[in-house]
Amino acid sequence: MKKWIVGLGIALAILAFAMWQRKDEPVDFSADVKPILNKHCITCHGGVKKNSGFSLLFEEEAFAAAESGNPAIIPGDAEHSEFIRRLTSDDPEERMPYDAPPLSKQEIKVLTRWVEQGAKWGTHWAYSLPKEVEVPRRRLATASWFNFWDSNPMHSDIDYFIKEKHEEHQLEFAPEADRATLLRRVSLDLIGLPPTPQQVEAFVNDTRKDAYERLVDSLLASPRFGERWASWWLDIARYADTKGYEKDNSRQIWAYRDWVIKAFNRDMPFNTFTIEQLAGDLLPNASKDQLIATAFHRNTMVNDEGGTEDEEFRVAAVIDRVNTTYQAWMATTFECVQCHSHTYDPIKFEEYYKSMAFFNNTRDEDTPGDYPTLRFYNKEDSLQVVRIKEWVGKYAEPEAVASTDLFLYTLEPKIHAHACDQLVNGALVDTKWLGIRNGGSARLPDITLGDNDLFYVNYRTGASGGKLEMRADGHQGQVLARVDLPATKGMQTIAIPITALGGKRDVYLKFNNPSIPADQPVCLVEWMAFREALPGHDDPEYPQVQQTFLELINKSTPAVPILVENPQHMRRQTQVFERGNWLVKGQTVEPAVPQFLHDFPKDAPRNRLGFAQWLVSEENPLTARTLVNRLWAQLFGHGIVEPLGDMGSQSDPPTHPELLDWLALQFMHEMDWSVKRLLRELVLSTTYRQSSALAPGGAEKDPGNKYYARGPRFRLSAEQVRDQALAVTGLLSAKMYGPSVMPYQPEGVWMSVYSGESWTKSAGEDQYRRGVYTFIKRTSPYPSAVTFDASSREVCLVDRIRTNTPLQALTTLNDPVYQEAALHLARHMEAAGKGKISAAIQSGYQSVMQRPLPQDKFAALEKLFRESLGHYRQRPQEAAKLLGASATGAAQANATTAAYTMVASALLNLDEFLTKS
């Protein structure tokens, strides 16, 4: 009785407080005003257009004088503000929005109140982050006085935020899912694979209070964890095994994929994960692993087609890096600012190119060799590299050792053939190689010679007798070198001693070989480099060391594309592209970050490393929010904010804004950017553990499960669909890392031009490896994966859209991968059944779904078996065809196996098998 009295008193107090409050509450610019402006006004008065000189995109523009000479908005005076007058005018030529339906009375009322209250220009919710967020325990306790029947325990602070929304929408938590269902769900979520029947049995019978926590910890520690989460990240990283565009040739970049898997398994803090991928090469004494990490931004496409302009596609790659970085880490539609200021968010046109300046000084230049690459030496050659570095360290400063190491492992900095100009009697052959005919020449402009006394040239020629002459400052300038060009077997690098002149000069290259036909080039040059010779000239062992150095340079090694920054003397200027056209250069800009976000760290360098540090600064309101929102969506099917790619003013408001902020702050501070700790917090929550069964009235109150009054239920990812089928049938390989593999795909899918590359089915266990290792050709990605909405990886993708098409059922019913899996499962069923149909079918269901088979489903599957058995007994040739090489020769045995195969195929196509529920 006392509780009811207290509850009534609280209710009366709340009512009194509401009546006391002013009706004219302050208008929230971000929540109330900005959505109206974006919907009705910005298209004519924003980033693209500024009709009548009036813009509502930036604060300073909104209150500035328009073309009339007067400001349209007078803060505090709605009556004399032209902005309000135009919204309420009866004259169709004056009333705004022009030639469109008028604003509603409520919308006009909101804007009028906003102007009357001083037209305060607020900040969008996503662009600032509170210092702390209170978990609503006390508020919830007060609001729940009358909910004595609610017995769901709160396993995480997350649940208090969710419960508070339940109270608002008259919802409540669903009961916890049964143990078998919960185990399958969390296993698929954390490692991407279902549990085995033995694991299910152990968990179901584990009576310890912390059994679920122990289970979660074991999954987080599994090496399969990294493979599951790498699949997610590689969509964002637009990772593929080919370069894209027309030729779409293969590239060896799988070492980056392996780096991602290992990083997730080590639980590399997300801020470190960020810095190493964006700027690992700029870290002090960068390790080879940190260099591999930078392949994140070498996943951009490269156009190898003959006749293309390398600079055009280098610029395209840089633009892709800018767009991908802002999208991947901050869910910002920064790509909208390439041609004009953002239409809806406060990002200025020039700020795009200031950000681009951070990325514009990498050594890659859209060359067929995919340079720069990190070369992988074998054990013997690696020892030679160590000896050379020890030699240099003996005679020179540490900087020389670092330079030697960089050149041996990356061949950088080098100069590509396309840098030559003023070509005489020659051309850039296929836009790749410098090909100068007898007596012809080319210029290398603005070369910083400094103390360099060696010229390395990588070339090929089948003719002997060729000569190269180098001069400085002109065709008749000082001779730097004259040297013979021996015939080669393929591409070869030679070292040419030159006169060290110092300074920055034009270098002229003259080629001669009168013995070859007049229309043939003397040689084909791919790249060149000016370097200082190794120190220690007076040591008797010097010639051998120099020879070993050259031999290492000429080694053909596996390699992975990486980022390497230009040295100071090769730095590029970054200019604004007028209207986004890379050929029309505007003002020069320096590296800087957008003003609407937090300041650039004071002590950070103005390069990619400083930019990466800015991204993961604890002052950044977007990076942690973005990551938390996307991990939440991976587990629950949708984000707290939708869409996942936009936290700007055009996104839907967050369903649980305080929860999003609390998780972001926890992730940065309490969890130290640990992805595993964040995922652990999410999957331990009551919110996550709920049954996904739809309660009566649940569909009407919350059809999209936005407020999480039931557990998640949605289809598995493309990789998980295939991996699960292989796993439950015993086919899945546990092999990790290494080159990408080619499982079965139909003939004729690949249409490779020029290269003659083809899809060659992998042998042995490689054809049964996890989907994360499947070879991805951008112009022709793995068909069954694409059917289940996997990406072609041409651009960054942060959210796969789940579709439901007949092609998906046709794939899982007819693709030989799934047919083989069904046959494999059928043989297991036969063995387990020992002649008993019911035992065999129950065994198959137990293997697939990790729980006992319900009677109604058994009846349907038994009927399918008996009908199939009768069919194949009458048509033994069809049974033999289905079984293929597995056919035993005995028609009766084949018919039985074929019938079980049909049942197994049905099991692998169950909705409950293809969904996480």
Plain-language structure description:
41% of the residues lie in helices and 10% in strands. The protein is built from 34 helices and 15 strands. The strands form 4 sheets. Strands 2, 3, 4, 5, 6, 7, 8, 9 and 10 form a 9-stranded antiparallel sheet that branches. Helix 28 (806-814) packs across helix 29. The longest helix is centred in the middle third of the chain and has 21 residues, at 310-330.
Radius of gyration, in Å, reads 33 Å
Q: Based on CA inertia axes, which overall geometry fits?
A: globular
Work out the number of β strands: 15
Q: What is the average of the pLDDT values?
A: 93
- Measured between the Cα atoms of the first and last residue, the distance is 42 Å
Helical stretch tally: 34
Which regions have little confidence, pLDDT < 50, spanning 5+ residues? Answer: 11-22, 145-149
Which structural class is indicated by helix and strand composition?
alpha+beta
Instruction: Give the helix level as a range of percent.
Output: 40-55%
Largest sheet, if any?
9 strands, antiparallel
Q: Which strand-content bin applies to the residues?
A: 5-15%
